[in-house]
Structure formats: structure tokens, C-alpha cells
Design brief:
heterodimer; A: about 270 residues; alpha/beta; 2 domains; five-stranded parallel β-sheet; elongated; B: alpha+beta; about 25% helix; globular
Chain lengths: ~270, ~190
């Protein structure tokens, strides 16, 4: 089991009211404290985002902040968890009203299962432990689940079209994936939130596999296009991507959007 | 909200119609005919015009003309659109389909042309049509939505696509996906 993630996940601490104080349980992760404008400037979230507020009703009054978090979680390709830390309970809230507020909070997110709640400063440690364990489990199961849901991954021509992205270990290699898409390894490393050194050291590391999968899905277009035609397609403006090129979208952190488009192309899915 | 709860109550009141016909989908000529059941025809969690990410659906076009225009929209400019392609046919017999050609249905749900043709691939949040699809996916009464084809609109013509929600297809409703020589690749009922 890959456990490195538990030791040091990339972590941000933020607060919609700008008064985030690092809780003791979070210090070992060396979090970066981010303002709301710094959160707005992100294109994706780190592995762990801790949001500290006084109460849940206080948080729910910051709708723009919650929308910004939701958008960035949706755009984050790898495992990522948000832990909401509430320092105290809402004033005079019944059990029913409290449950309703939780539903309202979760409804902001298309991935509510990536949202954890710490209802009080004493429960932060447990909530973090649970979030991190889920992330590791997600990573460990990603390959298996991906192959189960990945109908295109069972099609012979599709498998053949991306065989050159794999190292001799049979796993995706960041070097080969970068070359196929015309990216530098350093640029690919930045896009998946890793350092160039870490990626270069073990380009087919287990921990990189779920992060490289969306890029592999993009390269599947070579099942129906030649390598040259695929490279040309990457650089052509595409009206389905807001008249940007697929490569521009990838570089903006939208590799999953481009991968979805490719799979719609390969399966002729009307839109 | 991303949950579709904003449409859940109006969905209960909207008029539906029966649909008994063949639907069509054009697919690049890979080795797809070997697949049984043809799971690659489903969204496999990908978002599309009428569903947010994570909702399983089956998209088809109402006629071969529309399917061809949809295919050209996807593969246009790559050279692949002129190469041989496969055409899948689905025979559907569905009792309750929401038909957006009907003005009263559009009115009841307060959906307009802007909603039907809104760009959705890079939208920050699910579009109204995707939220509506999410609401449909959460019930078991309505099994499909008939909606206008954006590929047709872009060529100055009219045409229709149908998105089926497999979880809501139950006997006597039926969807049969046909393969070579009319062999049934998969049957939902």
C-alpha cells in the first residue's frame, strides 16, 4: 500500500473570513495559509484543503467562496479532499436544521464524497485522518476501478494506440506521456502537481498513474488519427473547447475536459 | 445548485409522451462490434449536454442524418470524418419521454434555446440542462429526454437527439441495441 500521501499531503488552510489559524493537528502537514483571493487564483486544489470557520451558518453565508471551492475541486484531477472545520455549533439550531445546513453545504459540490466535516476543534485530527485514508484508498484502487469503468480501455485499437505511453513495467511513463502530447516533462510535472525531479526520478511511479490517466485518455485519439494528425489536432482551435486548442485547454488544467471530448469522438456520442 | 433539486418538483408535473422508434449513432470504425454488451456507447461517467459528470446515460440521434451531422461535428477537420464508420441502431419502446420540441414542456421547465445550446464542456458548474438531466436520473418514471441537436443547428437545420437513462428503463419499456445483421447486442428492460 502506498502510504507516502499520509505523511505529507500538499495542504492549504483557508477561511472565508480571512482569519485562519493553523490548528495544532494540522501543523505536521505544514499547510500554506491562503486568502480567498489566493484560492480564486488557483486552477485546482491541493490534496488537502482545510477550511476553518466559526460555524456552518457562517460558512453558508459566503456563497461565492463556496462556489469557488466547488469549481476548483471539480477541476482537480487527482484525489483531493476538503475538510470543513467548524469551531462551534450554530446558534440555536435544531437537529433537523443542522442536517439541512449540511445538505445545503454538500449541494455546492459535484463530488460531495470528497468533502469532510470536523464539527469542533477536537475532531480535526480524526477528520484529517479519515480524509487522508480515503485519499490513499482512492489512489490504491484507482487503477482497478478505472479499468472497470473504462469501456474504451478494453477496445483493442485503443489499447494499441497508447501502448507507447507505457514503460517496460507496463505502467504509464510520464516521459512517454509528455512526448506524445508535445509537452516537456517539467510542464507535465507542473500540470499534475508534482516536481520535475520527482517525476524524472521515477516516471512510472504508482503514485503518478491516476494523475497520468487523463493524459493517456487524450492520446487515445490516435486510435483513429495518425500521430501527425493527432499532433495537428492538438494545435487546432476547437469550437467545443470555446475556440481554444486542446493543448491550450490541457495547459489551463482542463485535461479531463479534453479527455472527455476525445472519448466522445471515439464513441460518436451526440451532444 | 449542482444537485438538480431545483428541477425535481417541476419534473413531477411536466407532460411526457411515448416513443417507439429506431435511434441511430455513428461511431468510428474501430473494433467496436466485438464488444458485447456495447458499454462504450454509454457515457461511462462523462458529462454531456443533458448530464453532469457521474450520471450514466445512453445518447443517440433520431435519424441517420442527425447522427451523421453529430459525427461530423465531433470529427470534422481531422480527416477521420471521411473514413468508414459504424452505425449502431437502438430500437426503443418507452412510455414516458420528455420531449423538448413541445413548447408547453419547455415552458413548464422554463428552459429556452439558450439553455439547449449553451456550451457545457468547459462550464465551471453544471448547466441548467445538465441539472435537469441529473434530476431525471434520480427518479424512475421518465426514462428519456428528446432534445434539439446542436450539430443540426450549426448547419442551419433541425434535428433531434435522445438521451436515455438506463436505470429508469423497466418493462414494459425496452431498449435493444442492435449489432451486425440485427443481432441484439444488449437489451434494457
Amino acid at each position: 500500500m502506498q502510504t507516502g500521501l499520509i505523511e505529507r499531503p500538499s495542504t492549504i488552510l483557508t477561511s472565508p473570513t480571512g482569519d485562519a489559524v493553523v490548528p495544532a493537528a494540522l501543523r505536521r502537514y505544514h499547510p500554506t495559509v491562503a486568502t480567498t483571493s489566493e484560492i480564486n487564483a488557483l486552477t485546482r486544489l491541493p490534496e488537502l484543503t482545510v477550511v476553518s470557520t466559526e460555524r456552518i451558518d457562517t460558512l453558508l453565508s459566503h456563497k461565492a467562496f463556496l462556489r469557488a471551492l466547488s469549481i476548483r475541486l471539480e477541476q482537480t484531477p487527482g484525489p483531493s479532499k476538503i475538510v470543513f472545520l467548524f469551531k462551534s455549533k450554530p446558534r440555536a439550531a435544531s437537529e433537523r436544521a443542522g442536517a439541512k445546513m449540511l445538505v445545503t453545504l454538500f449541494e455546492y459540490f459535484t463530488r460531495p464524497f470528497d468533502v469532510e466535516i470536523a464539527p469542533g476543534i477536537d475532531s480535526v485530527e480524526d477528520a484529517l485522518r479519515e480524509a487522508l485514508a480515503k485519499m490513499v484508498a482512492t489512489r490504491n484502487r484507482a487503477g482497478q476501478r478505472g479499468s472497470q469503468n473504462d469501456a474504451l480501455g478494453k477496445v483493442k485499437r485503443v489499447i494499441e494506440s497508447t501502448a507507447d505511453l507505457r514503460a517496460s513495467s507496463g505502467k504509464l511513463s510520464a516521459n512517454n506521456v509528455a512526448a506524445a502530447l508535445g509537452l516537456s516533462v517539467a510542464e507535465l510535472a507542473g500540470l499534475i502537481g508534482r516536481s520535475r525531479q520527482a517525476v524524472s526520478k521515477t516516471p512510472d511511479a504508482d503514485s503518478l498513474q491516476p494523475l497520468l490517466r487523463p493524459f493517456e485518455r487524450v492520446a487515445r485519439l490516435r486510435a483513429t488519427l495518425s500521430t501527425d494528425a493527432f499532433r495537428k489536432w492538438l494545435h487546432l482551435t476547437n469550437d467545443q473547447l470555446g475556440d481554444r486548442t486542446p493543448l491550450e485547454s490541457v495547459r489551463d488544467g482542463h485535461v479531463r475536459v479534453v479527455a472527455d471530448l476525445v472519448e466522445d469522438m471515439l464513441t460518436g456520442s451526440p451532444s | 445548485m449542482a444537485s438538480g433539486t431545483d428541477f425535481a418538483s417541476s419534473l413531477e408535473r411536466v407532460a411526457t409522451r411515448q416513443m417507439r422508434r429506431r435511434l441511430v449513432r455513428c461511431v468510428p470504425a474501430l473494433d467496436f462490434l466485438e464488444g458485447r454488451p456495447p458499454t462504450y456507447l454509454y457515457t461511462s461517467g462523462r458529462p454531456n449536454r443533458c448530464n453532469p459528470r457521474g450520471v450514466e446515460c445512453l445518447y443517440s440521434s433520431e435519424t441517420e442524418r442527425v447522427a451523421t451531422l453529430e459525427y461530423r461535428r465531433l470529427l470534422g477537420g481531422t480527416g477521420a470524418e471521411e473514413e468508414p464508420k459504424l452505425t449502431f441502431v437502438a430500437e426503443v419502446d418507452l412510455r414516458r419521454v420528455i420531449d423538448f420540441e413541445k413548447p408547453d414542456v419547455r415552458g413548464a421547465l422554463d428552459l429556452s434555446a439558450a439553455d439547449f445550446f449553451q456550451p457545457w464542456r468547459e462550464a465551471d458548474l453544471p448547466t441548467r440542462l445538465q441539472r435537469f438531466g441529473l434530476a431525471v436520473s434520480k427518479q424512475r418514471d421518465v426514462s428519456a429526454i428528446r432534445y434539439p441537436s446542436d450539430a443540426c443547428r450549426r448547419t442551419g437545420t433541425k434535428g433531434w437527439n435522445v438521451v436515455i437513462f438506463p436505470e429508469a428503463v423497466a418493462a414494459p419499456d425496452r431498449v435493444r441495441i442492435l449489432g451486425r445483421s440485427g443481432a441484439v447486442l444488449e437489451e434494457l428492460s
